[in-house]
Amino acid sequence: MIDDLYSARILSLAANLPHSGRLGAPEGSAERVAKLCGSKAIVDVTLDADGRISGFAQTVKACALGQAAAGVVGESILGASAAEILEARDAMLAMLKSGGEGPEGRFEGLRVLKQVADYPARHASTMVALEATLDAVNQALEKRHSDTRTRLAGAA
Fold first, then answer.
1. What is the separation of C-alpha 28 from the centre of its chain, rounded to a whole number of angstroms?
2. Does residue 55 sit in helix, strand or coil?
3. Mind listing the pLDDT tens digit for each residue in 104-135?
């Protein structure tokens, strides 16, 4: 039954969204919308010298499941690399779509949403925050690489 999805942990995560809002000067920003239900996440990031997340903000308008996933992301994101976020995204998709165990390491908390696998209509809303975060980080990294190429070309 769908009521089984809404455990106390999920409702607590949904009610306490870490890093809510927007960053003043993000290096990367992205928005994801779940077409089926309209759940939306806007994520801003800044990166440290090693490309790890040093600043993070999110604005999430989603169901309790999408909010809960964003809560886990917000609790775990600082210090994460693009590779860790990609790995978590892929493990989350495998958990939802093909019986995978879910993310490990810093994003293991997303496993609380394992029961969502039985409700395909809820998959997209559960993924919006993680997908937006990955998009924002990739945008920031691409901007850095573009700036580096521009500087190197100007030095030639």
1. 13
2. strand
3. 999 999 999 999 999 999 999 999 999 999 99
